[in-house]
Amino acid sequence: MLKKATVILLLFAFLFLSGCKLGNDSISSPPDLSLIESAQDSGAQQADSSESAGNSLSSETVDDDINKNTLIAGTDSTFPPFAFTSDGQVIGFDVDIIKEIGARLGKEIEVKTSKWDLEFKELLEGNLDIVISAIAYNAEKETIIDFSEPYYNMNFLLVSLVGSEIQLKENLKGKNVGMLESSKGCLDKSYTQDYSIVYFKDVMEMLDALKNREIDAVLLSVQIAMNLLKENKDKYIVIDETSSLRDFVIVFKNNSSLKAAVDKAIEEIKSDGTYDAIYSKWFSY
Q1: Which of 3, 48, 197, 225 is within CB 3.0–4.6 Å of 157 for a Cys-Cys bond?
Q2: In terms of residue numbers, what domain contains 148?
Q3: Is the same domain home to 162 and 140?
Q4: What is the mean pLDDT of residues 267-283?
Q5: Residues 109 and 215 in one domain
Q6: 69 CB burial (10 A radius; 0-12, 13-18, 19+)
Q7: What pLDDT shows up at residue 223?
Q8: What's the CA gap between 197 and 184, in Å, rounded?
Q9: Taking residues 12-17, what's their average pLDDT?
Q10: Tally of helices (H runs) and strands (E runs) in the chain
Q11: Do 77 and 197 share a structural domain?
């Protein structure tokens, strides 16, 4: 136990030194989610220690989560319609998906809300068994965490304010465009090369920045954007659409005993029509 705790502490020491997130690009804001192999400025000796710690955790971690009666699922409840709070309850597409998966596994699912930038820390510390929070797959992080098979495919919409000078994607050259940190790395770099990306932790913070003209447009997944546009057709306009490089996945601790069972449940849900029913519930416009 002491050795395992030391390994986790070593991982977190490097976790918070880097500016990297689940995507491949660096960001200017302070790091919050940094599932990384090493810190860029930590020096060769520290980098070696980080790699050793990561390898040790990977080889030693074989959890017993598959035998639990109740699984704790972490989600950020600020991403409607994926997860949000209504009348004191956390609801949404992600919540319904993970509860259906739990039912297929014969497990109770306890949904625990957590800030997006703390979910992975809580997962590695053992406070969460799984994370489902509109997270995009990233192959580079599979030495540290495990991913399920995709449970959701998405496109992105480029959205600006009605009446602004930004009515076409071409109008954004040299401008600033907001994007959620959780969507980092989801778009081809060629799509964003003519403007600067400004990253935000949650949707409302980003929309406030757009409303206050601190940024010129926002990039949102189609479903989040359509949920927004449904209630605010007089405020926002869609100026372009593009496909994502990555799909949404469920996240586990490395070498999780849950992965195979969850992957099987996802396949069943998609094949028997349950997925379509859940999708229609949250994404019918």
Answers
A1: 225
A2: 65-152+247-282
A3: no
A4: 94
A5: no
A6: exposed
A7: 74
A8: 10
A9: 33
A10: 8, 13
A11: no
Query: Would strands 83-86 and 89-91 be described as parallel, antiparallel, or unpaired?
Result: antiparallel
Q: Which residues have C-beta within 8 Å of that of residue 7, sequence separation ≥ 6?
A: 53, 56, 57, 60
Beta bridge partners of 196: 176
Residue 222, CB-side half-sphere exposure with 13 Å CA sphere: 13
pLDDT at 254 over 70: yes
Closest residue by Cα to residue 57 from 116, 113, 15, 5: 5
| pLDDT tens digits, one per residue of 44-69 | 333 333 344 444 444 454 678 899 99
Yes or no: say if 122 and 115 are a contact pair by the CB < 8 Å rule: no
Of residues 258, 254, 186, 193, the one with CA closest to residue 222: 186
Residues in the chain: 285
Q: What would the pLDDT profile of 100-144 be if each residue is shown by its tens digit?
A: 999 999 999 999 998 877 888 999 999 999 999 988 787 767 778
CA 101/CA 269 separation, integer angstroms: 8
Amino acid symbol at 180? L
Hey, what are 244's tokens? Answer: 């994502």
Q: Are residues 94 and 139 in the same domain?
A: yes
In terms of Cβ atoms closer than 10 Å to its own Cβ (0-12, 13-18, 19+), residue 61 is middle
142 and 166 belong to one structural domain: no
pTM of the model: 0.60
pLDDT confidence band for 39 (50 / 70 / 90): very low
The count of domains in the chain is 3
Chain centroid to CA 205: how far?
17
Residue 62: per-residue pLDDT: 60
Residues 138, 272 within the same domain: yes
Q: How far apart are CA 100 and CA 269, in angstroms?
A: 8
DSSP state of 141: G
